[in-house]
Amino acid sequence: MSLTPKEKDFLIDTSRKIRVETVKMLAEAGSGHPGGSLSMAEMLSLLYFKHMNIDPEHKLDPNRDRLVLSKGHGVPGLYSALAIKGFFPVDELMTLRKLDSRLQGHPDMKNTPGIEMTTGSLGQGLSAANGIALSAKLDEKDYNVYCILGDGEIQEGQIWEAAMTSSHYQLDNLIGILDYNGMQIDGEVQDIMDPRPITDKWRAFGWNVLEVDGHNIEELHNAISKAKEQSEKPTMIVAKTIKGKGVSYMENVVDWHGKAPSDEELQKALEELSDEGGKA
Amino acid sequence: MAEKIATRKAYGEALVELGNERDDIVVLDADLSKSTKTASFQKEFPSRFFNVGISEADLITTAAGFSTTGKIPFASTFAIFATGRAYDQVRNSVCYPNQNVKIAATHSGLTVGEDGASHQMLEDISLMRSLPNMNVVVPADATSAKELTKEVAEIDGPCYLRLGRPGVPLIYTEDEEFPIGEGKLLKEGTDVTIVACGHMVERAIFAAEKLADEDISAEVIDMYSIKPIDEELLIESAKKTGGVVTAEEHNKFGGLGEAVSGVLAENNPVPVRRVAVNDTFGESGKGDELMDKYGLSVDDIVEKAKDIMK
């Protein structure tokens, strides 16, 4: 079912809020990864506020949907979504990366409410998502497992081991979203180690593949809806995105993979991400 | 001591018993199920067995995914792959989040034999015991392997179960219990303590018999639980005998010898001699030949025991 205009506005605004909280917490922390957090804001908005069956009041409901953030350095974006959803207070985002905080620099399932899998060493998340999806099949539960991957991350060999496992076991309850922002620490992904042709690769590994503009709420929504109906195959949604999306000086700039904005830069980012800026 | 049974065979049997007792046990393998003996579980419980193919990193993290849903996964492959190839996965997907994953590794140590150094894992105890949250157990015979497989299923948290390839004699009778965190005092003595694990326990017993012929009274401990280790038993024995020889089928760095030395240095310093592979790789050969060539013979234990008493 397509989104109503009201839903669409709400999800676009939620993506904006995710970005606002992300830049605020990174500036406060003084370190972290803005680029890959901002590029996946629409994915998080759609998953947490439209598609995933989750409830902060019943965090460990055995029938809940799960998200594994395989590109763990994007966790500030995920913390934003979780806080806005009500898993923990929004104020707590300001403790990111600080001593005694529940919000570690990379996802820690034992510390943070709503985090389903500890990640941070790239390439491991899809295997974990497979384990969860296999368990759902074994127990005849109908929850879905989502896994957000980075396009640099798929250079890791374990991703392709896991990709084989997903299709071999016909994990149609597994939906991957590839945050295809084209950049990694050392430069452009295609220059460092070109993963293309990306869609052909996933198809060749036995996956159903959908391609979308990762910042277009409707396209992304339709793809997730389609993926949920897929049978016998896992689905990979290849979502073309812009690294640092929403903050002009961060967009498509490799340097913003892993550094925090200064106070001045933060103010500029917040102006751009204000209600008016976000809708422009 | 006539019948010889491999610890991996006992592991396979224990898995089937566990599978009958509880339905939250799942078993994963990486194309070695006939060798790791998980094939028997597959036969009995095909829906709860998952072969991920030749992909050990995927094996470990998939098991971790299972554990997040409340399952108790046993992930099995050879020791070299489970701990060496997939170390990062064991560290970050299993130990850091303290997942209830059991890593059962077969074909550890020199007694892999003819396959040679590439397959003779001599650093796994070191790698696994240095990981926070990880429990490390090394059964000496089939009876203890079977019991310890059941013990690790009971413990909530990561466990490394180190198993071997060849048949080994039975040391224990069936009614014995093996609580994790304890060791077994197999023979009391007053002159020297021999602390062994795995395939070296049998040799430690023979060494004690040889020493007895020369009127040296050796105490023998099977330290099947290396982490947590039985500090009380070690300290008590060292106080009585005043010297300890450790014996393990592992490199001398980071294994049983250093675990024992650490406990004693902090609590009751006594001289320690280590019978272990002397910081080298092995080679192809028969298991027994390799054990002798690389300094793991009964006489090596005897010699170090006498050396300590000088």
UniProtKB/TrEMBL annotation, chain A:
Cofactor(s) listed: thiamine diphosphate
Cross-referenced InterPro entries: THDP-binding, Transketolase_CS, Transketolase_N
Keywords from the named record: Metal-binding, Thiamine pyrophosphate, Transferase
CDD domains: TPP_TK (cd02012)
Annotated Transketolase N-terminal domain residues: 16-271
A Pfam family assignment: Transketolase_N
GO MF term list: metal ion binding; transferase activity
Annotated family: Belongs to the transketolase family.
Name this protein carries in UniProt: Transketolase
Species this protein is from: Natranaerobius trueperi
TrEMBL record, chain B:
Cofactor needs: thiamine diphosphate
InterPro entries assigned: PDH/Transketolase, THDP-binding, Transketo_C/PFOR_II, Transketolase-like_Pyr-bd, Transketolase_BS, Transketolase_C
Keywords: Thiamine pyrophosphate, Transferase
A single MF term (Gene Ontology): transferase activity
Any matching Pfam family: Transket_pyr
Coiled coil regions, renumbered to chain: none
SUPFAM superfamilies xrefs: Thiamin diphosphate-binding fold (THDP-binding), TK C-terminal domain-like
Residues of the Transketolase-like pyrimidine-binding domain: 5-170
Family in the record: Belongs to the transketolase family.
Protein name: Transketolase
Organism this protein belongs to: Natranaerobius trueperi
